[in-house]
DNA sequence: CTGGATCCTTATGGATACTG
DNA sequence: CAGTATCCATAAGGATCCAG
């Protein structure tokens, strides 16, 4: 009977998918910024503190590939490129925000425990 | 008026805290395994597919330091060490599972979009 | 059984310069 | 403006050996 093991593997797969989507430093911050609505490349870079041009590009490419973000180019001079959350991307907002809310609710507890652990 | 910027920074801080807690490959899997109840080091290593001894140790140390996991040693030969989720750790389960549920609900959509993006 | 120490390879990401 | 390309430093992580 390998049903239990297979079920566990399935769960693991989902978890790893989540991490592949938003488990890096920038994806969640970019998605969070895009909550404000469609934005241009430059707006995003100014909005997400500390992100480099390179990482913004890589992050947007990944989010686009995974279907969370939509990229629209308007051929003009100077060029204008807008990024917006897709329906799929917006559907991710709920679960993510509940996690953020958890962090808000427990930040003091975490910080407290961490310092207490360093100096018992 | 810098209130908006400060609020955004606060949100960013929470997001980065989440990533520091569970944004790595193994933390979520270990937490997921600990849902089954308190377990020994060896059980965890067998339960979390592919984790090395080193990474299990490091992950558990981090989770312990952040107050998500409790470590109890029973002096004996051979030594026995049990790990269990703390109350704080269990409170994280809800938000995390809603995220997992999201991945379950949209896995087909994600896979489909990904392959479609590779071959347009 | 639990887990620390070391070596070594790869992945990540910042800085910078250049292009349509 | 919106990238692409390159170089380089650091971090992450696997394999292995050793010890209480």
UniProtKB/TrEMBL annotation, chains A, B:
Keyword vocabulary terms for this entry: DNA-binding, Transcription, Transcription regulation
Recorded superkingdom: Bacteria
Positions of the HTH hxlR-type domain: 11-111
Pfam short name (any one): HxlR
Listed SUPFAM superfamilies: Winged helix' DNA-binding domain
Coiled coil: none
Xref: InterPro entries: HTH_HxlR, WH-like_DNA-bd_sf, WH_DNA-bd_sf
Signal peptide (from-to): none
Protein name in UniProt: Helix-turn-helix domain-containing protein
Organism: Saccharopolyspora thermophila
């Amino acid at each position: 009977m390998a049903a239990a093991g297979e079920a566990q593997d399935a769960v693991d797969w989902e978890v790893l998918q989540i991490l592949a989507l938003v488990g890096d430093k920038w994806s969640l911050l970019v998605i969070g910024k895009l909550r404000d609505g469609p934005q241009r490349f430059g707006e995003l870079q100014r909005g997400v503190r500390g992100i480099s041009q390179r990482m913004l590009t890589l992050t947007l490419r990944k989010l686009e590939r995974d279907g969370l973000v939509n990229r629209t180019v308007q051929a003009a001079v100077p060029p204008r490129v807008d990024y917006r959350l897709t329906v799929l991307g917006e559907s991710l907002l709920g679960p993510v925000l509940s996690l953020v809310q958890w962090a808000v609710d427990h930040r003091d507890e975490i910080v407290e425990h961490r310092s207490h652990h360093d100096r018992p």
